[in-house]
């Protein structure tokens, strides 16, 4: 049963998820976090930075694993998700760099890189709290809708719409967005102890309604979250659309 929380606006969504991270790290300082990129978590990371500066959250013993990365981009490329995380969170908080984990977009052997990542997650004891966003087409991480989904971390081909929605990272040019990525699989996400999906804005409302109310299907990757025992959707009014 998916828990659903509908809040007034994007700031309230960010605040609720930031509080959840703060509570987790207060009770379990060495917790393992799964982290997303995209526009949606920008405000979440701003709040965590502020909370850290005010001494309200300590990341010194925490471990992080990011969901996905563009294939072919080295970590220091300005369009990489790693650069996004450095800018929005990592550079500003006291995470131990050795406990920050990322799929390496520049890996020469992507399959081996994905196997390494799965092994690193296992070695860390699994992800305690996985935070995800959702694409307008229902993707989570870079698990795009299709005839089949991958359980584990894998190499993924991006839909044109997904490349367009990532264009801002590449000077607004969708053609500059890589065609492929590395991503945790749906199974990687479902193995987390708890999952929070955050979504804001009207463009997400149709995907949210189908992910929650429709059948579990590879055509709507976020629908697989219905199978998890501890999942919460934290939505603003617009993303909640007509849900009641
Ligand atoms: C991107 C990312 C996802 C993210 C989603 C939504 O392509 N790969 O991890 O959740 O799309 O992005 P946004 O928050 O910018 O709408």
Record the SSE blueprint.
Elements: E1 3-7, H1 10-27, E2 32-35, H2 42-53, E3 63-66, E4 68-70, H3 81-88, E5 100-101, H4 110-123, E6 129-132, E7 154-157, H5 160-165, E8 180-183, H6 186-190, E9 194-199, H7 205-213, E10 231-236, H8 237-240
Parallel strand pairs: 1-10, 2-3, 2-6, 3-5, 6-9, 9-10
Antiparallel strand pairs: 4-8, 7-8
Helix pairs in contact: 1-2
The structure holds 2-amino-2-deoxy-6-O-phosphono-alpha-D-glucopyranose (GLP).
Tell me what the structure shows.
It is built from 8 helices and 10 strands. The chain is of the alpha/beta class and 244 residues long. A 7-stranded parallel β-sheet has the order 1-10-9-6-2-3-5, with helices on both faces. A 3-stranded antiparallel β-sheet has the order 4-8-7. α1 packs across α2. 44% of the residues are buried. The mean pLDDT is 97. 2-amino-2-deoxy-6-O-phosphono-alpha-D-glucopyranose binds next to α5.
Largest sheet: 7 strands, parallel
**Helical residue percent band:** 25-40%
Q: Which molecules other than protein and nucleic acid are bound?
A: 2-amino-2-deoxy-6-O-phosphono-alpha-D-glucopyranose
CATH-defined architecture? 3-Layer(aba) Sandwich
Task: Give a count of the beta strands, DSSP E runs of length 2 or more.
Answer: 10
Unreliable stretches covering 5 or more consecutive residues: none
CATH topology name: Rossmann fold
Key features?
244 residues; alpha/beta; 7-stranded parallel sheet; 3-stranded antiparallel sheet; 8 helices; binds 2-amino-2-deoxy-6-O-phosphono-alpha-D-glucopyranose
């Amino acid at each position: 049963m998916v828990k659903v929380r509908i809040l007034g606006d994007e700031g309230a969504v960010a605040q609720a998820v930031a509080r959840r991270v703060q509570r987790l790290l207060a009770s379990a300082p060495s917790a393992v976090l799964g982290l997303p990129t995209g526009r949606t978590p920008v405000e979440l990371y701003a709040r965590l930075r502020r909370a850290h500066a005010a001494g309200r959250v300590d990341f010194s013993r925490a471990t992080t694993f990011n969901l996905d990365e563009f294939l072919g981009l080295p970590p220091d490329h300005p369009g990489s998700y790693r650069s996004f995380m450095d800018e929005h969170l990592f550079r500003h908080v006291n995470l131990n760099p050795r406990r920050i984990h990322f799929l390496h977009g520049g890996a020469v052997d992507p399959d081996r890189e994905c196997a390494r990542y799965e092994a690193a997650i296992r070695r860390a004891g699994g992800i305690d709290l996985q935070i995800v966003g959702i694409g307008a087409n229902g993707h989570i991480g870079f698990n795009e809708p299709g005839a089949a989904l991958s359980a584990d971390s894998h190499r993924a081909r991006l839909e044109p719409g997904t490349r367009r929605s990532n264009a801002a990272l590449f000077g607004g040019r969708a053609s500059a967005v890589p065609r492929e990525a590395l991503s945790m699989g749906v199974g990687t996400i479902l193995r987390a102890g708890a999952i929070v999906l955050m979504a804001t804005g009207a463009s997400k409302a149709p995907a949210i309604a189908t992910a929650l109310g429709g059948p579990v299907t590879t055509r709507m990757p976020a629908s697989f979250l219905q199978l998890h025992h501890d999942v919460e959707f934290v939505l603003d009014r617009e993303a909640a659309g007509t849900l009641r």
